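FW: tagging you since you asked about this chain on Friday. Here's the raw sequence from the shared folder, copied in full. Didn't touch anything.
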Amino acid sequence: MEYVPTSSLTLQHPKITSLKNNFNSSSINPSSSSSSSSYSLTRICVKPSQSNNKNKFTIKCRNSEYFQKQQQRYTKPSEETFSSQALGAATRVFVGHSIYKGKAALTVEPISPEFLPLESGAYKLSKEGFVLLQFAPSVGVRQYDWNRKQVFSLSVTEIAALMNLGLKDSCEFFHDPFKGKSEEGKVRKVLKVEPLPDGSGHFFNLNVQNKLLNVDENIYIPVTKAELTVLNSAFSYILPYLLGWHTFVNSVKPSDTSRVNNNTNMRSGAETADLEWSK
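HL: got it, structure written out here
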């Protein structure tokens, strides 16, 4: 006979009807105050004894396999789960946000800062991160030519200028990638952000003149207030990381009770602050 739940217990032996009544009585109910002992019967097996006496029977109880599986389900860690720390240590992660319109597409991607190792074993920020804007012209319905894309890098200060734009405000950024070099003036990039006539957002207009490649490209895309709000929220979150400040926070430990600079050729900002507050 298979195991059956207590609630649907059926005793097939004709001599054990009274036993069935006992199982249903409060004498074995865990909540009964008159019970002398506590029971946890989730499944009950009643089967005849192997002896020749058919009137004899045995009762075997065991925990429900269903509840055992449920317990394993909640206690056993999933093989598909992984920590973000392990992910960051093993894999580079690329993220971005895209806006698609009829004339062009715009993709926004954060680029991490760079650090320089020092002789003391510490690291120093050598280059701030930035946000890379990629403009691709449209060549059809929901089709864009990314081979003709033009890029523009926003510094942290330029990002802040975009975040502070009002509905009727505009701004303009000029970049020369070869400034201070022999090719200065041969590549000219101008990004203009101007309000839309109906006040629903801003135009992002990128003009690139590259005399080295004989390119004169002008790409513009309207960005609504909602889309600009999404960008501003992402900018606000990523700014401290572009400055590299997260690395400083991660390096601070409770055991760091002293600020000792092992590099004798450079005075740290912490020491300078200590001198100021000691006056």
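FW: Confidence is low (pLDDT under 50) at residues 2-20, 22-46, 72-89.
HL: agreed, and Residues 225-242 form the longest helix (18 residues).
FW: great, closing this out.
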